[in-house]
Amino acid sequence: MTAAETYYPQEPTAPSVTTSAVPGPQSLAAIEALGQHFDARCAYFMVDYDASNGNYIVDADGNTFLDLYAQIASIALGYNNPRLIALLDTPQMKNALVNRPASGNFPAKEFDATLQKVLKLAPKGQDRVWSGLSGADANELAIKAAFMYYAQKKRGGAATPFTDSELSSVMENQAPGSPSYAVLSFKRAFHGRLFASGSCTCSKPIHKLDMPSFDWPHAEYPAYKYPLDEAANAAANRVEDDRCLALVEHLITSWATPVAALLIEPIQSEGGDNHASAYFLQGLRDVTLKHGVVFIIDEVQTGLGATGKLWCHEHSAISPPPDLVTFSKKCQSAGYWFHDPAFVPNQPYRQFNTWCGDPARMLIFGAIGQEIQEQGLLAQVNRVGDYLFGKLLALQKLYPDSFINLRGKDRGTFIAWDLPTGAQRDSLLKLLKLNGCNVGGCSDKSVRLRPTLTFEEKHVDVFIACLEKSVQQLNA
């Protein structure tokens, strides 16, 4: 039996949409009621999570959709997974939920065992973890760790005490205690909506309007020609990589304040599913080492298997490994991985908060990882991804104007393409819902696929039929 058959014997075999519009009347009424005391303007539809099963999500009107968006790429195993539900009956989960430990001061006696399960999932070269609450929080924490590490090196190492000037000036938000350091990120990047992460985000104005921002540089992320394996495109893409690497080094050496860290997504997800080549990522590692800059990989959306490896940057075999790797979404937890003990602050309470993450979510993270390994889900993602990409290539030949820059080959089910305009993309997403598939977009005109790790060939066949019907309607 396959993983999906084991988990979800009652999973629907096909979508079913009975309303003439999505959201339907029941969803619309519920959204309106919710909107009286909560900002519900972003709701696509109201969900009946009790009725949702496996790779299918059910709305308040009883419509059943094959879900290729999976809670904005954050559901790893599908809806109502029995292995995760079983965790609710364990004493560890009861303690984590009911007594919610303040793990920095009062860690549960089983906390190290929880961490050991999580550490089995660490990227190659990483053997330490610090936990957070969300993707944006993970990136904020990693930036903070990078700044403390960078300042500590400049000061002379962990044994060097803080000066009286540092201790007094920091209380006035002034240097030298509050130094002016920068994080270099990339145009079209998305790292979160908080303050440091917001300053690194550069995908859509709406993400950060009216928020004070740090004066930090944004480099250019390579824009490749597809398909990647065509000789002319490969040559042009290498030129593009070298151009962007030169710009990164120029910004590091010329920015008005020292660049302490570089933060990058191996695939820019919100910004349009823009892929970074292994050559580019290794070039960044070389540049950051050359200039003493902390190298942070943001794996919030790309992490935990969707690209066919546990961590997307592992496709690139970066050497030496990144300094910090952030995670969230499919992990159902958040935080950053690291390996150099020097990233542990030189004094306690510097990287600290009440809960130091969430032990309940870390328990789920460990359980998800165990299922990925025991069920062979990485192999499945690669197999299904190849099958899905092949089907999309066939559609691209039939409808080339509706499948521009198809990308994600050999990256599991982490696949995207463009439409000619944003209006056409939005119309296609609407048609897909009416035909029974919940699919998301990114950037201005891209469609992105983010199914669970239990997505199988049978689900691909349902999706492709729905997609072709929707494209035909779009082009009619």
From TrEMBL:
Annotated segments matching region Disordered: 1-21
GO molecular function: 4-aminobutyrate:2-oxoglutarate transaminase activity; pyridoxal phosphate binding
InterPro entries according to UniProt: 4NH2But_aminotransferase_euk (IPR004631), Aminotrans_3 (IPR005814), Aminotrans_3_PPA_site (IPR049704), PyrdxlP-dep_Trfase (IPR015424), PyrdxlP-dep_Trfase_major (IPR015421), PyrdxlP-dep_Trfase_small (IPR015422)
Cofactor: pyridoxal 5'-phosphate
This protein's record includes keyword Transmembrane helix: no
Enzyme Commission designation: 2.6.1.19
Coiled-coil boundaries: none
BP term (GO), one: gamma-aminobutyric acid catabolic process
GO cellular component terms, semicolon-separated: mitochondrion
Catalysed reaction, written as an equation: 4-aminobutanoate + 2-oxoglutarate = succinate semialdehyde + L-glutamate
Pfam families the record matches: Aminotran_3
Protein family: Belongs to the class-III pyridoxal-phosphate-dependent aminotransferase family.
UniProt-recorded name of the protein: 4-aminobutyrate aminotransferase
Species name: Maudiozyma humilis (Sour dough yeast)
